[in-house]
Amino acid sequence: MKPNVLLIMVDQMRGDCLSVLGHPVVDTPNIDQLAQNGVLFKNAYTATPTCVPARAAVLTGMSQTSTGRVGYQDKVPWNYKHTLPGEFAKAGYHTQAVGKMHVYPARNLVGFHNVVLHDGYLHYNRFKHNNMETESYNYSGDDYLPWLKNQVGNQADLIDLGLDCNASTVARPWHLPEAVHPTNWVVTESIDFLRRRDPTKPFFLKMSFVRPHPPFDPPQVFFDMYKDLELPDAPVGDWAEREDPKKSGYNPITSKGIVPKNRLKRAQAAYYALITHIDYQIGRFLMAMEEHGVLNNTVILFCSDHGELLGDHNLFRKSLAYEGSAKVPFILADPGNLLKLKKNGMVEEVVELRDIMPTLLDAANVEIPECVDGRSVLSLCKERAVEWREYIHGEHASGQSSHHYVTNGKEKYIWYSQTGEEQLFNLEDDPQELTNLAAVIESAQRLTFWRERLIKELSGREEGFTDGNRLIIGRETKACLDHLLG
User: Fold this and answer.
1) Residue 135 confidence (pLDDT)
2) What GO CC annotations are associated with the protein (predicted)?
């Protein structure tokens, strides 16, 4: 029988928040064990660092230009011909998703046989004043919320803690029993799938956590692990804004500004606590897999859709191209040594979320559709040298902050399309992006090198970002390209 495949996906987890990578405080023993049972990719990125476009890359294996999602826009239908779960289903797999999907319509199966859904707080589903005519504000069939109400009382809701779903600067512990936290629920439902799955077929399970995306609400025991520790200060580059005359940092859902020190430290502690909480629940699921006799016949991939700036350069949330936002954890584990990977390995080559679909299909010896832009990383996980891509191109349409970036994991070039600002970072010498080399005379050749690569990537784009010779400032941006909108 073909191997089972488990995709563990978290939301808004930074690529550096792993103890196996030497983070000064974050403890992730079970994720570390996944890395020891396989390969950790040190330079993994999301090309479009927000939920919807990043998840499109995961589920289709396509670049942002192919999916048509180059920014964040809700309520755009998902009509892709080939998807990761769809290809597994056609190959005879029993496919199941548990947790966050963030597709549209929200109950779109996108190729899965079944979805047990919890997307967290989605504004277009929640806002009753936008949905009164159809009474569709039942959260599009979210499965967690009615379950929660059944467990603790009909008045329970997602907003009970008073924390906004995008608040990256405020936090408080979870107020209900840990067993009913959405993180535990994802694992509980995933364990139930192991019980109910078709034993005559291999399975593909996507176990998708909403956390550590805000609200920052870890169970008390995990918050206590971090609240009194000396937490690392967020790096602030020489190019960052250091004043906040509008006091933007006092807004709990700010994307930039100077946040009161104690408030920020609590948010850091809660964010790290959510990661460790997820890690322990992953450990719970790995034990359940052993009990069901499937652990050693399962290939596991762990990743996030994007990161969280968490105060880096006085910035918060995601969407930007800096390491805290665009770099993600990416681990391919093979507990049963089915793929003959180099165990406890680390790969330096740059990979992207579009590589997940071809990797997992390759691991199961399932044909990879021609529309897939990503590449299987299995060749990088063997004890031999292989040719690989030289860099990736990422972007995000977001008003005045709209930007494009290119990186090979060693250097990074960022171009802000509305202002023309350029940034160049030497990530080997300056992994925290403290020094912008764009204006340094000695870096002029490298700046030109990376600018020309971006021009090549943007040539022919409908927005008109380049004429093939230069970058053109101020072109109108859009979150979705014309071919997606029809």
Assistant:
1) 46
2) cytoplasm
